[in-house]
């Protein structure tokens, strides 16, 4: 049973955060997420701030990372790349008023958030307060790997089984690697042009740093599917932490898509981790075709909340709203890809 505290959270700037105490708090959670570890946040959101609630002896008992960005002199929150979820991480039981205090402190400090995603573990408690227009429900897909592989395979759709056999008949080879450059090249050449607004070079720099850090900590697996002659057709980066395998980044060329190379990669990860307590998190985006691809492995749609609000002065707010409408229209009309 988790303990209750009467403490209140405090906003801490980056240099005020005790990162050792922070990581101890995150590591002690029942649902631990790699996104919330201090070193991960340092890479994806340099200068991040936080709300922290302390226990009786000064230990961190509830933390909430705040990915702060600044533009035109305005500080706001925006979900970082390679970080699908954040939210409130707590080793204690919070009252409704304490939860409300966390959210009130954020709104008092930041007049705008472009989207802040709370972890799937926060969904139950947020159900009570998320009825307003500031809240949207998103979904990722999880596949429990507790069962033996043949039973998990039975949960694949008929089409997924067919495409897996197609990939096997193509005699593709799977290799583990410590070189992320081929994966970045696959993405640049085959996917980046489909992303609205393009992909900044900084995103690739961040990915390289993140991969290096995960590799050094022994939690990364990078797998490529190749032809018999060694030509790389597809790749997938997986991060193992806290009982979850996160499908963090992937790409394939036209031939890789035709031969279902990513299906072969995912099936291999499922086989190798079957009959464990691990959960494969596909990090599914809200794109129907991609979500359908992940669902075809027998995964379950898991909800989480995204918080968006705009309390900026009216002229700036209207400008932001117009830009968001243009972005939403462009994304909805962009060619979908698998």
Q: What is this structure's SSE topology?
A:
Blueprint: E1 10-12, H1 19-27, H2 38-44, E2 49-54, E3 60-66, E4 68-71, E5 74-77, E6 89-90, H3 96-109, E7 112-117, H4 123-126, E8 135-144, H5 149-154, H6 158-169, E9 173-177, H7 181-190, H8 201-216, E10 220-226, E11 232-241, E12 244-252, H9 254-258, H10 261-273, E13 279-281, H11 288-295, E14 300-310, H12 314-332
Parallel strand pairs: 12-13
Antiparallel strand pairs: 1-2, 2-3, 3-6, 4-5, 7-14, 8-13, 8-14, 9-10, 10-11, 11-12
Helix pairs in contact: 2-8, 6-10
Pfam families: Acetyltransf_6 (PF13480)
Protein name: GNAT family N-acetyltransferase
InterPro entries: Acyl_CoA_acyltransferase, BioF2-like_GNAT_dom
Description:
- This protein is globular.
- It folds into two domains: 10-129, Aminopeptidase (3-Layer(aba) Sandwich); 141-302, 3-Layer(aba) Sandwich (Aminopeptidase).
- It has helices spanning 19-27, 38-44, 96-109, 123-126, 149-154, 158-169, 181-190, 201-216, 254-258, 261-273, 288-295, 314-332, and strands at residues 10-12, 49-54, 60-66, 68-71, 74-77, 89-90, 112-117, 135-144, 173-177, 220-226, 232-241, 244-252, 279-281, 300-310.
- The protein starts with 9 loop residues before the first strand and ends in a 6-residue tail after the last helix.
- Helix 2 packs antiparallel against helix 8 and helix 6 (158-169) packs across helix 10.
- A hairpin with a 2-residue loop joins strand 4 (68-71) and strand 5 (74-77).
- It has an eight-stranded mixed beta sheet, with helices on both faces. A four-stranded antiparallel beta sheet has the order 1-2-3-6, sandwiched between helices.
- It is α+β, with helices and mostly antiparallel strands and 338 residues long.
- Keywords: Transferase.
- It comes from Pontibacter oryzae.
- GO terms for molecular function: transferase activity.
């Amino acid at each position: 049973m988790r303990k209750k505290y009467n403490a209140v959270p405090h906003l801490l700037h980056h240099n005020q955060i005790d990162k050792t105490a922070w990581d101890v708090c995150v590591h002690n959670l029942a649902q631990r997420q790699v996104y919330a570890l201090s070193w991960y946040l340092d890479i994806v959101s340099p200068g991040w701030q936080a709300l922290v609630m302390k226990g009786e002896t000064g230990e961190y008992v509830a933390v909430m990372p705040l990915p702060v960005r600044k533009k035109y002199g305005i500080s706001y929150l925006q979900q970082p790349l390679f970080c699908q979820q954040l939210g409130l991480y707590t080793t204690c039981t919070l009252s409704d008023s304490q939860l409300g205090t966390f959210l009130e402190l954020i709104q008092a400090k930041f007049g705008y958030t472009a989207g802040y995603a709370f972890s799937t573990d926060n969904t139950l408690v947020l159900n009570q307060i998320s009825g307003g227009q500031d809240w949207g429900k998103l979904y990722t897909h999880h596949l429990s790997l507790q069962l033996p592989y043949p039973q998990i395979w039975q949960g694949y759709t008929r089409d997924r089984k067919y495409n897996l056999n197609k990939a096997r008949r193509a005699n593709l080879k799977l290799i583990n690697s410590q070189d992320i450059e081929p994966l970045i090249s696959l993405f640049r050449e085959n996917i980046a042009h489909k992303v609205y607004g393009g992909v900044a070079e900084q995103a690739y720099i961040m990915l390289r740093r993140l991969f290096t850090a995960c590799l050094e900590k022994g939690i990364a697996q990078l797998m490529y599917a190749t032809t018999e002659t060694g030509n790389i057709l597809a790749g997938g980066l997986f991060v193992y932490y806290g009982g979850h395998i996160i499908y963090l980044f992937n790409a394939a060329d036209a031939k890789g898509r035709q031969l279902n190379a990513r299906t072969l990669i995912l099936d291999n990860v499922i086989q190798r981790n079957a009959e464990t307590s691990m959960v494969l998190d596909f990090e599914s985006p809200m794109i129907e075709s991609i979500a359908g691809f992940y669902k075809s492995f027998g995964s379950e749609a898991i909800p989480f909340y995204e918080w968006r609000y705009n309390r900026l002065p009216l002229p700036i707010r209207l400008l932001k709203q117009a830009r968001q409408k243009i972005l939403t229209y462009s994304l909805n009309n962009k060619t979908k890809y698998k």
